Amino acid sequence: MLTTLPLPLFSGRTAILLALTSLAACSSSKKDDPVAAPTREMSWTADGAALKTTTLQSQKFSNTLSVAGSVPGSATFLSLEFPNAVGTYTFGPNSSATAAYTASAGGTVGVYFAGSTGTGTVTGAGTIVVTALSATEVTGTFTFTGINLNTGASKSVSNGKFSVGL
Q1: Is 15 helix (H, G, I), strand (E, B) or coil?
Q2: Does the model's pTM come out above 0.85?
Q3: Which tens digits make up the pLDDT trace of 99-126?
Q4: Which residues does 7 contact at the CB level (< 8 Å), separation at least 6?
Q5: How far is it, in rounded angstroms, from Cα 52 to Cα 44?
Q6: Residue extents of the structural domains in the chain
């Protein structure tokens, strides 16, 4: 024989209180973490020294982008120019990709350039890889050997990375 037990009767207030308690138990009191802003910086290695800067500049032209960074407190400056699209750009006579590195050694400032000189010749060698491009940011990597057009001396820049706001 099956025995049925009487169910307790709940008042309207008790039912509402029970429902609210159940909802509170399921919800989180932790606020959603805000999305962190991207770290915007340029970094590279030259003369065996790892350099990094957050002192950045960028400029959009009709078909190209220019990004640059300077190391505060020094004459060290690096600039890149490349097509306004994701891709791999090797310096050549028909490429708009260029790189320039300015550094001071022994009190003398030298500029080392890689890319087309505008006369149909190319100086230096290297590659810029644009890995992501949006309306607000461009990221990528680079490596190049720049030539000082006055002295013929070369300077290698490696392990380059950039994440720059536009």
Answers
A1: helix
A2: no
A3: 999 998 788 899 999 999 888 789 999 9
A4: none
A5: 7
A6: 41-165
